[in-house]
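Final report, Chapter 2: Outcomes

The project's central promise was a pipeline that accepts a single protein chain and returns its three-dimensional structure in a standardized token representation, suitable for archiving and comparison. That pipeline is now operational. To close this chapter, we reproduce one record exactly as it appears in the project archive, with the input sequence first and the structure output second.
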Amino acid sequence: MSDRRPRAARRRSPEPQPAAASPGPAAAPEGPSMVQATLYRDGRRVASPATLAETYRQLREHPDGMAWIGLHRPTEQELHSLAAEFDLHELAVEDALEAHQRPKLERYGDTLFVVLRAARYLDAQEEVDFGELHVFVGPDFLITVRHGAAPDLSAVRRRMEENPALLSLGPEAVLYAILDAVVDGYAPVVAGVQNDVDEIETEVFGGDPAVSRRIYELSREMVEFQRATRPLVGMLHALMAGFAKYGTDEELQRYLRDVADHVTHTSERVDGFRQALTEILTVNATLVTQQQNAEMRALAEAGFEQNEEIKKISSWAAILFAPTLVGTIYGMNFDNMPELHWAGGYPFAVVLMAVVCTSLYVVFKKKDWL
């Protein structure tokens, strides 16, 4: 990436077009998707063109300069204009148009194409929002294509302009600053997720019934976070492997190694979060099962106690029914009843009631119904 050949040698057309000539296929209608275009020379801003066509013209006039073009969800026409001007590979342009790419690093000739997944933590919703950033890095240009709110590249631009010595190292230095901003943006996300995990642990042992859904949603976010951070480790190691081949500045090498360390640490934290959430989900399932078993046991005990009460009530009802039956029979007013005029009829009826009641009581007592 340190090759500083004249721009005319890298264009698809055999000769550079004069500044006053029509830009041809490189021209594109300008829209709000171009956030900012800036030209730098020796780490200092020399121009801020308002259109892509003006950026192309001024960069041709200053072949020793560097253009930094920032786009936000550009149109297909704008990307094809950039591809024609800077000889961008059609596959990389297609990826930048479609978005929804996994982080990756690919080299097409002297142009490097990098896909990054930025993240930010939304406190109000307690969720992680992911953005996508595509970066084209050439010998004298850097193009950023942003899909989503993160990362804030204006802060990266300010940082680089405040450090001309670093910016003078060229597009590779800007790429480092973007990588550093994306990786630093993971720190608040890690802190927010750690707080969520702590709250979830409290809710799990507090018996909150809605915690399962929260665990599931956070687990899905951690899967996305892993997809954003894991490939970065390999990408940065690939960049470091090319230090000698592409003559990367030693100071820049140290910066990139520092970013690689931070990425590795973040990736390990994310892996730890996902493992912790898996274990928490298992614990929650166990606690829910135990709670359900306890509720079933309580229902069974309540049913058993209810059955015992029913037995007692039924037993006493049967005991009380026996004298009622005897009394009802002898209380009938019929003239031809055998015992109607018997002198021992009343004592016999009373004794019969007592015997029946006592017998029933003994039977029910033996059966533990009373």
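Archive annotation: The CA atoms of residues 60 and 155 lie 27 Å apart.
This record, like all others produced under the grant, will remain available to the consortium after the project formally closes.
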